[in-house]
Amino acid sequence: MAECSAICLVAFLIMFCASQVRSAGSNHQYKAGDTIPLYANKAGPFHNPSETYAYNDLPYCSPGQVEQKKESLGEVLNGYRLVSTAYKLDFLVEKESEVACKKKLTKEEVSQFRAAVVRDYYFQMYYDDLPIWAFIGKVEDKHYNGGIVEQYHLFTHLEFEILYNKGHVIEITLRTNPNSMVDLTEDEEVDVEFTYTVRWKETDNLFEKRIDKYLWSSTLPHYRRVHWFAVMNSCLTVLIVLGCLLTFYVRVLEKDINKYASDEELFDNQEERGWKSIHGDVFRYPKHKSLFAAAIGSGTQLFVLVNAALPLGAILLLLSIWLFGASPLLLFGGIAGRNSGSDLQAPCRTTKCPREIPPLRWYRGTLPQMAVAGILPFGVIYVETYYLLASIWGHRIYTIYGILLIVFIILIIITVFVTVALTYFQLAAEDHEWWWRYSLLACVFCLHYVGFFKVWSTSILYSQLS
Question: Which domain of life is it from (predicted)?
Fold first, then answer.
């Protein structure tokens, strides 16, 4: 009965999520004169893509009433904060030097813009779910009195060129006009007039292939070489760890097993040391076994995602998924497993009293070994993680999901190898309480990176294709 209920609940959740995904999308079909909002997303230094701020943190003039786009879960997890702008880009409506707004910049606002120009700030906008980028301003060197003086300029005119096919927006390009700038060199108030131009051009490109524009960087030879080099490096790491494990098994474990299997009388009379001395304790049930099983069953990636800078609504949504999705499945799965499972058949007898664990050196503690255990998995995924983070918080777009899958598989393999090796080291130190440290550590490693790659890559792909 419990198994049937669990299956029905899973089917309901799948259908519910599928229906929500279908209803969230737009058909992107417009008629002449239809309003298509231009949303501003973020701004930040170009050379540090992980440092981003809200577009409205800069003293741009805003429309009369700032509206925030109702974002999907994928957009929220990507860190999107889409707000309306003063630029009106109606479908097939061309504009020439249209005034978006006028503003008098105070000394503090001039200083804020100048600091952004010095750091090569760019901003990102979205039009019909298509991203566009542009720089805020530029720095010029001017010769003055025999020397060189830096001047800081703010771009005030934007040129939008939009390609369309029938009723669909196919491509949008944003350029700044170097002839329309405001000097921000001096700390004094400045009158600024923000203007923009909109041009529409018809194209034969299909709507289904409009995302191909953003895939060109993934096809560049040097770009793919970096990723394949990372894959080869990860494979080499796996081979090294596998070689170490084989050395342990062949030279240590197999030698001991063959020795005691061939001479049982010697085994009974010899004092045991290392991992052999705790054979009566290693299969003992862990402390708080119900909590141990629940932690492994429900996963920890939802809690990790709440360390992110998410709004209250997204946190409540994730909490609802955990309460009404993961928790019922955990409950039904636990009941089904308890009713259908059999008692543990350990390969050796478990002693009634646990053996006293000898004092361990500091480097055999939990925290040092967790730090050591994270080095190899991090070395496997750091390249792909860099590009993922740059696409989430920066100005890159990640598209090589095949390589991401390969790296993810390698990550799982290296996590298993590291867990096996460290578990052996702990048992060799006659510490038989291995369950919470390495079983849960392996679970945290796997689920954390499973959740990271699954949620972020899915959200990126969804945000690009929506």
Answer: Eukaryota
Phi, psi dihedral angles at 39 (to 5 degrees) = -105, 135
Residue type, 429: A
Q: What is the DSSP string of 228-293?
A: HHHHHHHHHHHHHHHHHHHHHIIIIIHHHHHHHHH-HHHHHHSPP-GGGGGTTTTTSPPTTHHHHH
The single residue listed with the structure tokens 């040391």 is 273
Contact 296, 439 (CB under 8 A): yes
pLDDT tens per residue across span 268-310: 555 566 666 666 677 777 776 666 666 666 554 444 444 744 5
Report the SS3 class of residue 353.
coil
Contact 318, 305 (CB under 8 A): yes
What radius of gyration, in Å, describes the C-alpha atoms of the chain?
30
In the three-class reduction of DSSP (H, G, I as helix; E, B as strand; rest coil), residue 295 is classed as helix
Q: What is the pLDDT of residue 217?
A: 54
Q: Give the DSSP H or E segment for 315.
A: helix 312-321
222/432 Cα distance (integer angstroms)? 49
pLDDT tens per residue, range 202-227:
999 999 888 777 765 555 555 667 77
pTM of the model as a whole? 0.59
